[in-house]
């Protein structure tokens, strides 16, 4: 999960035409998934592809395109005529505010349970309250990590002015900044946490401090939705089956994910186990696709805090449940 409007503002107006040329062709059977191969959100797509669920459900998915950040992913989706994309909601909403004709058709990751904020083992910081006067790392301005840093501080009665928020440029870069003392605490989300947890000490976990909030959503172009409706429905069903498989076979799922994510199998298994078992106020991390409107409203308010979203947004008007299976069509 990364930033948003900054990626979109310069080019969104020209996205449906000019960016097509710049970004190169993408076949209609490809889908785009933000940070696929890096961040935990896209792991079910790796399982769906490996298990053959796309084909079994009737979607001829010939590739999963990855992009760093929601804005880039959305541009790639629109420019390449990809029928379906998984993107963070703030990028989607910023695009809609700028006139993009897109809509949210599935709610894929329902919480930010992958976020853990950690310090070095010898740090004097023991609790969130100890962050007063400390350097708090986040990835980029207007990113989810910046917004969540604010919420973490607020959970202990602190304001953002009580700590120095330091841009690190990325999660891996944040770990490097922690190692050399440029920051005192930084977010280490899964699967990085499973990889490096022996080196750092957790101070805060999103599952303990933060409510459920939409993390990534499934998006389609309205212009394509009608012609690609069967494909979109099949992708959503295949991803849902993958999530069920991950719940029932977390270690096998981890072994599948290890290859496209370039992870040690044990690291991938640990990440899957941690996130499959994670519950935030009773809400799971990887959802079935069913839309949770309260979580979408929460992330809108969070992103407003850091200026990633401006103006009033009616969450109900930007979602469309027509592509969901009948048993999960009801909006929560």
From TrEMBL:
Keyword field contains Lipid metabolism: no
Cellular component terms per the entry's GO annotation: periplasmic space
Segment forming the signal sequence: 1-28
Xref: SUPFAM superfamilies: Periplasmic binding protein-like II (SSF53850)
GO biological process: one example: alkanesulfonate transmembrane transport
Source species, domain of life: Bacteria
Domain SsuA/THI5-like: 41-253
Alphabetized Pfam families for the sequence: NMT1 (PF09084)
InterPro entries (alphabetical): SsuA/THI5
Keywords assigned by UniProt, alphabetized: Signal
Subcellular location, record wording: Periplasm
Similarity comment: Belongs to the bacterial solute-binding protein SsuA/TauA family.
Protein known as: SsuA/THI5-like domain-containing protein
């Amino acid at each position: 999960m990364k930033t948003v409007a900054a990626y979109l503002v310069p080019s969104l107006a020209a996205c449906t035409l000019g960016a097509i040329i710049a970004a190169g062709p993408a076949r209609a059977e490809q889908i785009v998934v933000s940070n696929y191969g890096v961040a935990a959100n896209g792991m079910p797509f790796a399982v769906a592809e490996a298990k053959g669920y796309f084909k079994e459900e009737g979607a001829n998915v010939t590739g999963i395109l990855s992009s760093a950040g929601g804005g880039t992913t959305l541009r790639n989706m629109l420019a390449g005529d990809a029928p379906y994309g998984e993107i963070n909601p703030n990028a989607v909403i910023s695009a809609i505010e700028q006139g993009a004709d897109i809509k949210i058709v599935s709610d894929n990751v329902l919480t930010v349970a992958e976020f853990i904020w950690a310090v070095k083992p010898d740090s004097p910081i023991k609790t969130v309250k100890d962050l007063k006067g400390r350097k708090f790392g986040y990835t980029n301005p207007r990113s989810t990590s910046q917004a969540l840093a604010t919420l973490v501080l607020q959970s202990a009665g602190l304001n953002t002015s009580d700590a120095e928020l330091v841009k690190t440029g990325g999660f891996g870069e944040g770990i490097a900044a922690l190692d050399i003392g440029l920051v005192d605490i930084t977010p280490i989300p899964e699967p990085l946490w499973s990889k490096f947890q022996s080196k750092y000490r957790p101070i805060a976990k999103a599952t303990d401090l933060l409510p459920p909030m939409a993390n990534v959503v499934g998006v389609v172009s309205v212009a394509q939705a009608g012609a690609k409706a069967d494909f979109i429905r099949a992708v959503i069903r295949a991803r849902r089956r993958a999530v069920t498989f991950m719940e029932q076979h977390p270690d096998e799922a981890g072994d599948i994910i290890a290859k496209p994510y370039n992870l040690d199998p044990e690291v991938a298994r640990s990440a899957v186990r941690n996130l499959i078992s994670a519950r935030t106020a009773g809400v799971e991390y990887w959802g079935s696709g069913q839309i949770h409107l309260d979580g979408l409203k929460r992330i809108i308010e969070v992103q407003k805090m850091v200026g990633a979203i401006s103006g009033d947004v009616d969450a109900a008007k930007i979602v469309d449940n027509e592509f969901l299976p009948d048993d999960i069509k009801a909006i929560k």
